[in-house]
């Protein structure tokens, strides 16, 4: 049985108007078109839908129930068409965004929202691995993550350069230092992120460059867990420089004798052609470089302050 929308509309129109001619005028089609649609419906159902009384088509009890269901089906179909039409546009569209770091992602989202206030936003946060998976299965439309490799499946744009730093409690003996070396870190208990974290990938790379593989006191799934553990003086943790603005109970300190920087990248599948994604990438251009981080340290791996103290 073929139940096209045009056939359902013909059924409702004839039931409402009582004639093929009036139904055709209502629908903007020819009278033979309407009568043919009703004939095919009756053949499919094996039942008469209308009876003639005084030159008017009267819906049978079955037809009355069928036309009510048909009207609901048409309404749902039109709502679905509207949703498809508006999804992804800048008038009444939707955009879902995946974030690994709340900052600087929220700055970009804020700029987009101010520029396109009619777009409904949904933000998902999680580990590097979780957000990558969400982009690939299209749970999110676009994402912002550090250290995204060039991949032919993605369109990408660098938002800014970021780097991993150590964090310690504000009363810690390291808190007043401008930078920490690998040997400094190895003298302390360490708190790592779990596997799949972009932060931990950089930390592992840093220690590998020094030919060491320290065993952490804790491995935690979330950035917030690392902050809480550090704030409670359980050890030295690691976060992205722009990962948060939290400063009341922890102090960020740069790592001075290794490379911990990475590009924060906006990316989306190339095959997702949505007006809202294009606009989001456009806002990325507006803030690129606005979140200014301190420049790289001298090649010897020392901050000017440490060099002045003769700390080698």
UniProtKB/TrEMBL annotation:
Q: Which PROSITE patterns match?
A: HTH_LYSR
| Keywords, sorted A to Z | DNA-binding, Transcription, Transcription regulation
Q: Which GO terms describe its molecular function?
A: DNA binding; DNA-binding transcription factor activity
| Membrane-spanning ranges | none
Ranges for the HTH lysR-type domain? 1-60
Tell me the CDD domains matching this sequence.
PBP2_LTTR_substrate
Keyword Endoplasmic reticulum on this protein? no
Q: Listed GO cellular component terms?
A: cytosol
> Which PANTHER family does this chain map to?
HTH-TYPE TRANSCRIPTIONAL REGULATOR YBHD
Similarity annotation: Belongs to the LysR transcriptional regulatory family.
Protein name per its UniProtKB record: LysR family transcriptional regulator
Species of origin reads: Pikeienuella piscinae
């Amino acid at each position: 049985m073929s139940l096209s929308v045009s056939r359902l509309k013909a059924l409702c129109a004839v039931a409402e108007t009582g004639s093929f001619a009036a139904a055709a005028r209502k629908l903007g089609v020819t009278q033979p078109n309407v009568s043919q649609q009703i004939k095919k419906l009756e053949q499919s159902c094996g039942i008469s839908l209308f009876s003639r009384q005084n030159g008017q088509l009267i819906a049978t009890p079955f037809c009355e129930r069928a036309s009510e269901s048909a009207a609901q089906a048409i309404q749902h179909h039109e709502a679905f068409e509207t949703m498809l039409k508006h999804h992804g546009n800048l008038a009444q569209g939707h955009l879902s965004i995946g974030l690994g770091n709340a900052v600087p992602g929220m700055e970009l989202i804020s700029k987009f929202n101010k520029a396109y206030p009619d777009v409904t936003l949904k933000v998902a946060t999680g580990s590097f691995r979780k957000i990558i998976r969400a982009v690939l299965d299209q749970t999110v439309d676009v994402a912002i993550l550090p250290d995204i490799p060039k991949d032919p499946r993605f369109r990408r744009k660098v938002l800014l350069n970021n780097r991993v730093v150590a964090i310690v409690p504000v009363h810690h003996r390291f808190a007043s230092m401008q930078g920490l070396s690998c040997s400094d870190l190895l003298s302390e208990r360490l708190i790592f992120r779990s596997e799949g974290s972009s932060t931990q990938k950089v930390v592992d790379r840093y220690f590998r460059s020094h030919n060491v593989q320290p065993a952490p006191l804790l491995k935690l799934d979330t950035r917030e867990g690392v902050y809480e553990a550090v704030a409670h003086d359980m050890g030295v943790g690691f976060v992205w420089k722009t990962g948060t603005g939290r400063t009341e109970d922890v102090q960020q300190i740069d790592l001075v004798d290794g490379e911990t920087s990475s590009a924060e990248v906006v990316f989306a599948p190339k095959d997702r052609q949505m007006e809202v994604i294009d606009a989001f990438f456009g806002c990325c251009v507006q803030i690129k470089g606005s979140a200014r981080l301190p420049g790289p340290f001298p090649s010897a791996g020392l901050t000017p302050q440490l060099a002045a103290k003769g700390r080698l």
